[in-house]
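As a representative case, we now present a protein record of this kind.
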Amino acid sequence: MVVAVVFTVTFNTEESAQAFLSGFRKLQRYVLANEPGALLYELHRCYHEGALVPLKYVVLERYHSRFDLDEVHRRSGPFTAFVELLRGLDVAAQSVETFETAQRGDDEAAAEGENAPGAERTHPLLRKGVLVFGGARVGRRAGYTAAAAQLGERLARREGRALVYGGGTAGVMGAVARATKAAGGVVITVIPRPLCAVEALDEVIGDLVYYTETMSERKSIMFACADVVVALPGGIGTFDELLEVLTLFQLDAYRPKIGLLNVDGFYEPFMTLLRHLVAEGFLPEDVFSTFVMASTADDLMDALNRLELPPLSENKLVWSTRP
């Protein structure tokens, strides 16, 4: 389902119109560079009977889904700043309309269910992907890269979902990316430019590639692209990413399904650490309900597909921007 927004605004003064145009250009650059769910973000002038209507503008927005629309309209700092700018301008009139693509036989489709046998799959780039963390090294056990390859194949052939990852072509991460592509899957790559020479040892693997300037920006875009997170065996970088996801989940800032691929018991020491933190009073016991763990890629994906996220608490935190 594609969601479209048509925003029309007319100004009383040229000064306000110019301030609007300047603010919109900044927002447009941000959205197109940092919001993977945005398909279109364009500004148009209005004409009536062939004549330009002065000081009147139309913004056309298209998103993969309502979730992606909310990512921009409710959780984007630059969008919030743009709205504040607009409130201070001399506006004569404005309107907002939201549209959704018409589905084939909406009532019939609802009765059949979204996953009816024979139904066409949504293209992987039109839905949230599976974000995978893992090491840039292969590790000491052959099972690490083998499990990564099995996960990539599963994503491509059975899940029909894009792999979202950090762009490395070596180690565990290279194994999952190459396996995804070899099985006909789609890969979304998010990599900081300075790391290209270090982690992308040959050609970057990706059907859609985002180049970032910082590690934090890399994570933010990866999070926006995925509603499932899988942690493979890896080093400090892998645990940095995994712990940030668990932290954001705890703070209600990002709530994906989270899975640990416990190849050859790799994550057992981590589980011991979590139990220690619970015992010492630094973590609530329900931390273990925020993720699932399995020793094979198939078992983990099956568990993630069955997983129901715990409900938000009544005192949930509300964030104005996405992480």
About this structure: The radius of gyration is 22 Å. DSSP finds eleven helices and eleven strands in the chain.
